[in-house]
Design brief:
The chain has 7 helices and 2 strands. The protein has 118 residues and is mostly helical. This is Putative fem-1 B-like.
Length: 118
């Protein structure tokens, strides 16, 4: 279901996420699987665990990110919470709220559908 990366490329991008190095993360996201795991961790887990809010923001803006993907039983949000990384928590919460809002049809769309069905 989710790709497991080769050690060399994955190690590099996970080190970048852990250290907040944006350039390698952005470069990886052009061709790599944003949800791929290395040693049971996604890039989002790594960035949240280490409080790298800029990396978290970059990752959640990827349309293919699975925010609730978890290793064992810990989601990235849980990891950020356990480590006290408030900026990461805020980004994840806003992202989830935005995705929830995007999935709710606007009043205009509802009215058009209701009018069309009559």
């Amino acid at each position: 279901m989710y790709a497991v990366l080769e050690k060399t490329s994955s190690q590099t991008v996970h080190e970048a996420a852990m250290n907040g190095w944006m350039k390698p993360v952005k470069e990886y996201l052009k061709h790599g699987d944003v949800n791929a795991m290395y040693n049971g961790w996604t890039l989002l887990h790594t960035a949240c665990c280490h409080g790298r809010d800029k990396v978290v923001k970059e990752l959640v803006n990827n349309p293919h990110i699975c925010v609730n993907l978890h290793r064992s039983t810990e989601t990235a949000l849980m990891m950020a919470s356990m480590k006290g990384h408030k900026d990461c928590i805020d980004i994840l919460m806003r992202t989830q709220f935005k995705k929830d809002q995007d999935s709710v049809p606007s009043e205009e769309k509802v009215n058009k559908l209701a009018h069309h069905e009559k």
